[in-house]
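Sample pair:
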Amino acid sequence: MHAHGRFEQEAWTYDPDTLSIYRSFVLLDEQLTPYIRAAAATAARSGLPIIRPLSLIDHTDPRGWSVADAYGYGPSLWVAPVVEANVSEREVPLPRGRWIDFWTGAAIDGGRTIRWATPLHRIPVFVSDGAAIPMYPRGHVADGLGDLPEHERPLELTLWGVPREHRTVMKLADGTRVIWSANEIAARPSRELAVRSMDSGW
């Protein structure tokens, strides 16, 4: 999202292709607001940062101190941004465990470095298997958030595999508790909640 320092930063100066890609990432960033604010609340409460180096995620991984261009984003995302021009793929050091490609739903075993395609419209992002990511629906963001209070905005819960304990509970920054289990998917206090599977991709 940082465009300053290298070229004109005003979005209206972008060419149509760049503007389209930029717009899609602005929408995605806004969709992720419930997830990001929950991670920010954790940071305020415990000091655990939103952006997490591999050495913090797995201090026993010997690669942890040498990975400078990939990072954890909150508790469940791993991001490997492209920092070189004119490349079609990059090496991605994945933490241990099983990961799911955010864009396609493909599952990958971690604990190794993989080569991954990097088209301009897809930053390499991976989700920890078993995660549940709370987001705002894309249409709700695209139409403008308006004056609707945060705790009344509709939510979309994306399930990425099955939680290890077959149950997960998350507390959002606005006080909402989102519960997923074999018998229940709910938001408390009650609010509009849609559920997506990672199989559908984006």
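The two ends are 19 Å apart (CA to CA).
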